[in-house]
Amino acid sequence: MERPCVVVARESGETARQRLAEADVIDQEFGIDVSDGSAASGAAEDDGQLYIPVTDPEAVPEDLEIERHDVPARTPQRTPADLLGEEPTYERLGDVVLVDEDGPERAAEIAEAIMESDIPVRSVLNRDSKVKGETRVRDWEVLADEGEERPPTETVHREYGHEFAVDVSEVYFSPRLATERNRVVEQVEPGEHALDMFTGAGPYAIPMADAGAEVVACDINPEAIEYLRENAERNGVADRITAHVGDVRALTDEYADWADRLVMNLPHTAAEFADAAVAFANDSAVVHLYDIQHEDDPFERGREALEDAAGDEYEVTTLEERVVRSYAPHELNVCLDARLDRID
């Protein structure tokens, strides 16, 4: 039956599906159609596309394309909600599912429902600590594991056409930030010098390199840099990424006045590295500074840190103040986009 559908490339299908699920607009009565390039029109541009039926086109995010398409009636699949009688909260990272439950009985119940559902999943993990230490990792309790050779905490996550191998017990990685990462990457111009100051497994560095930037990526966590290098090879951009292990401030002499774009994704403490960001900045550079602050004025600390670091050397212009997500009651995860222009 012909229905309004969001049209995306296959490689971006899971990210789009998650966004539509968050907006609660997926039409569950119909299935997702996969184009094989044999449409009646013979249009080559249809090859490798997914058509995701939606209930309300007006509620679909504006950047997603919509067209009417013939989709099949949905074959019912068992979801965790079907088995539990309610919708549990969880995140999918590749074939690993992440939950955050304090009660062990509730956690075990959700894990059992996830494993018995039709979700393609290999293991279920429950957060067992807050993000901690310089490397920003957390402890995980393994609730379910199919017992493959890989550790239950390791997976390959696909996001906007890129693949990221990651072990969440060794490297911080949040699938919820996919849309925000893509927002930044879409601003990158070929030939840019981009410095990813706290790179992790490379979810910013790798797509920026794929967009044509020359990237320097740093992380204090040696395990993160190992995954970054593996992922750079996996995505065919190893020749455009230079990786460094250690405190990024140690690179200010080597890369002084080098960067056209700086990504500072270290919430809670990124503002403390504003001096380094200014030292890295070229004559004109864009900074993406992430922070977690109280909702009353979540951007003030980042702005003041950049202005204090810039002094009389750079003019600081705010380009965008963006709320990325709610982090905790009355606390927001935000991104301050600013431009540094050297003063003659």
UniProtKB/TrEMBL annotation:
EC number: 2.1.1.228
Superkingdom of origin: Archaea
Keyword Cytoplasm: yes
One Pfam assignment: TRM5-TYW2_MTfase
Residue ranges of domain SAM-dependent methyltransferase TRM5/TYW2-type in the record: 90-342
SUPFAM superfamilies reported in the protein's UniProt record: S-adenosyl-L-methionine-dependent methyltransferases (SSF53335)
GO molecular function: tRNA (guanine(37)-N1)-methyltransferase activity
Keyword tRNA processing: yes
One CC-aspect GO term: cytoplasm
GO biological processes: tRNA N1-guanine methylation
Keyword terms of this UniProt record: Cytoplasm, Methyltransferase, S-adenosyl-L-methionine, Transferase, tRNA processing
Protein name (record): tRNA (Guanine37-N1)-methyltransferase
Originating organism: Halolamina salifodinae
